[in-house]
Recover the amino acids of this structure.
């Protein structure tokens, strides 16, 4: 039987953002957290337009013209619907409820005399000195407008001091100004009253153009293609080339234009012309043009009852006693860490112990995203200062983290660490930390492998699995990966690790085939995969064929999934569900069973999603969990609760829609929080 067509990747990404938006509409989610989900949708959609939609536009130009145009129109239409629904949730559901709780966003008309006086003083003291309006004429062309910056377009009447009748002006708003300002208690007693910077400027626009009449105006914001293009084969110094590229990224090709709903057509048409955009790229929004900035309101609001209850990740005392050397503990067996339910601090402590240990000879680590402040990076710098051999593989092309990574690379090099940037044409996405220690007359290696980044902040927000081990196979393979990244030698055969771009894709396909073969033979046949995205056509093809063979397949896919489940005769044995909850699902778990025996199953943890880019354009690793007790723990914590989640889970339909499974069942994340009791 022919296999069905794959679902659209772009529409699958939008479907994920619709699931995030659904969180903002849930009555059982605290109000400020509902507002946070509104902000997350905006942040996600910014990246969608900056990266994915920009690539989609480029691909559409080179494909079948009619088919590409239809798909482009369908994706653009769905993006418009999603953003309209986002603002409806903000205006009709979230903000009215916040107002009832005494948290207000005051427009100019809502402010009383004392509040207007305070805002007026704030404008003249903090805002007006930084604004430079530009009237457009032949000697003042349309200015460069940076990606995602806040701006006003103003239509003016009358003439200026030089007799010019320039009718259009642009006001660029500096990024250093706060977008949300809380009014002091003396002018807003008994309330938590906020004003948006845009409202402050709007109320004083006439002061920026003395003697002129402000006839019309609008906020606007342009989203640009932000993919950082560097020809790695043609540069002598990748770091220098990327730093140069960071300055030009802000002015890439325009992709989307946002204006407020009240913007006159003549102004929006003028802006579309300036940015060379079609009408379909215009988004008229019923509210602030950048809801991401409302995170500042969430941070300033004093309302603990309107947030998630505090959760402090637990230190795994029974498995990793604080008063004992981590090296000594790992000599007894591997340790599995489940973040954010368990603390990330043991990973930091593992590195700090290595830095302070005089028997440690070398430390090697990969860095993809670590943030601008990182105790791990500070520890590596300290190790290099102490004279230890430190090698750090810094991925300079980690999107939107390039500048932070460049800065860390420069600091590491300044203290003598060996810094390498991986392999030309491939991003280093594997998460590895390797310590080599002298023990008696021999050397012993210890390693940490992870599904997530070495970032203590996001480790409190993302679900990930970390694996501390002294296993000789895993640590030898980890060392081989570092040797590959640092030198020009050939690839060594791995003892245990699967590695992209070499063996991971092929071996994953072989395991799916093995399960399919077991199903055809009437043996137990089971696949459970938890990934962030499933878009690789070859793996989808194999999963479909395994379903046809009778294998039972459960896929827990947080984001884009291009496989259409539940189709008779093709994917009827495949169930796809997505969990969107308090924490961002990020762990990757691959479970395969092809019989009834203890040796007829394997479970891998991985840094890679089931996407072509992860399999062929990145350095990735997957490692087996050989310890039966740890393997069962992964199943019990990372698959079973998610397959029975009746609160945060949604099940994918054959057409790509998602339906909520229930509202009164268990939440996998809440169950894990209760289990660890942080």
């Amino acid at each position: 039987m022919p296999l069905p067509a794959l679902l659209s990747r772009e529409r699958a990404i939008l479907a994920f953002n619709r699931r995030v938006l659904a969180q903002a509409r849930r009555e059982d989610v605290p109000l400020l957290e509902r507002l946070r989900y509104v902000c997350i949708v905006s942040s996600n959609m910014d990246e969608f337009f900056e990266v994915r939609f920009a690539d989609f536009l480029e691909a559409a130009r080179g494909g079948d013209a009619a088919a590409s145009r239809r798909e482009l129109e369908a994706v653009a239409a769905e993006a418009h619907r999603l953003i309209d629904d986002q603002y409806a949730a903000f205006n009709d559901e979230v903000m009215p409820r916040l107002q009832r709780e005494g948290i207000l966003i005051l427009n100019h008309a809502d402010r009383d005399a004392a509040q207007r006086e305070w805002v007026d003083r704030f404008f003249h003291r903090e805002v007006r000195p930084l604004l430079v309006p530009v009237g457009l004429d032949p000697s003042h062309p349309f200015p460069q407008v940076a990606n995602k910056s806040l701006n006003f377009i103003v239509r003016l009447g009358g003439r200026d001091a030089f007799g010019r009748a320039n009718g259009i002006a642009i006001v660029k708003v500096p990024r250093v100004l706060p977008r949300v300002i809380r009014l002091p208690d003396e002018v807003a007693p008994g309330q938590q009253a906020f004003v948006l910077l845009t409202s402050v400027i709007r109320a004083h626009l006439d002061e920026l153009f003395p003697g002129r009449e402000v006839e019309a105006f609008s906020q606007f914001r342009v989203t640009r293609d932000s993919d950082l293009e560097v020809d790695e084969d043609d540069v002598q110094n990748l770091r220098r080339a990327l730093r140069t590229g960071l300055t030009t990224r802000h002015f890439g090709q325009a992709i989307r234009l946002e204006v407020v709903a009240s913007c006159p057509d003549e102004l929006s048409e003028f802006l579309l012309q300036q940015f060379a955009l079609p009408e379909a790229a215009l988004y008229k929004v019923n509210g602030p043009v950048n809801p991401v900035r409302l995170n500042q309101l969430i941070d300033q609001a004093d309302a603990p009852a309107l947030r998630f209850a505090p959760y402090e990740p637990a230190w795994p005392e029974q498995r990793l006693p604080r008063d004992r050397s981590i090296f000594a503990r790992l000599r007894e067996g591997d340790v599995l860490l489940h973040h954010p339910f368990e603390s990330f601090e043991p990973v930091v402590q593992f590195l700090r112990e290595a830095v302070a240990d005089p028997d440690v000879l070398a430390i090697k680590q990969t860095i993809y995203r670590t943030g601008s402040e990182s105790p791990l990076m500070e520890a590596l710098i300290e190790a290099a200062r102490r004279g230890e051999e430190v090698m750090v593989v810094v991925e300079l092309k980690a999107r939107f983290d390039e500048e932070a990574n460049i800065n860390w690379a420069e600091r590491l090099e300044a203290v003598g660490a060996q810094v390498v940037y991986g392999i030309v044409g491939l991003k280093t996405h594997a998460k590895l930390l390797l310590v080599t220690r002298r023990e008696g007359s021999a050397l012993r290696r210890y390693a940490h492998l992870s599904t997530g980044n070495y970032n203590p902040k996001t480790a409190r927000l993302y679900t990930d699995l970390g694996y501390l081990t002294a296993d000789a196979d895993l640590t030898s393979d980890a060392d081989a990966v570092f040797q590959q990244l640092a030198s020009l030698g050939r690839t060594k055969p791995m003892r245990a690790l699967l590695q992209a771009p070499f063996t991971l894709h092929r071996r994953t396909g072989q395991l799916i085939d093995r399960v399919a073969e077991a199903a055809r033979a009437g043996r137990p046949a089971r696949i459970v995969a938890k990934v962030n995205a499933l878009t690789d056509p070859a793996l989808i093809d194999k999963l479909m064929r395994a379903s046809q063979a009778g294998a039972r397949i459960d896929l827990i896919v947080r984001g884009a999934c291009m496989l259409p489940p539940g189709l008779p005769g093709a994917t009827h044995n495949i169930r796809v569900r997505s969990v969107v909850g308090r924490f961002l699902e990020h762990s990757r778990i691959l479970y395969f069973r092809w019989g009834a025996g203890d040796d007829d199953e394997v479970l891998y943890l991985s840094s890679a999603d089931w996407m072509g880019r992860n399999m062929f354009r990145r350095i990735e690793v997957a490692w087996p969990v050989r310890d039966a007790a740890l393997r069962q723990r992964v199943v019990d914590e990372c698959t079973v609760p998610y397959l029975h989640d009746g609160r945060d889970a949604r099940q994918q339909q054959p057409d790509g829609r998602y339906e909520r499974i229930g509202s009164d069942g268990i939440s996998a994340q809440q169950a894990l929080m209760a289990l660890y009791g942080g």
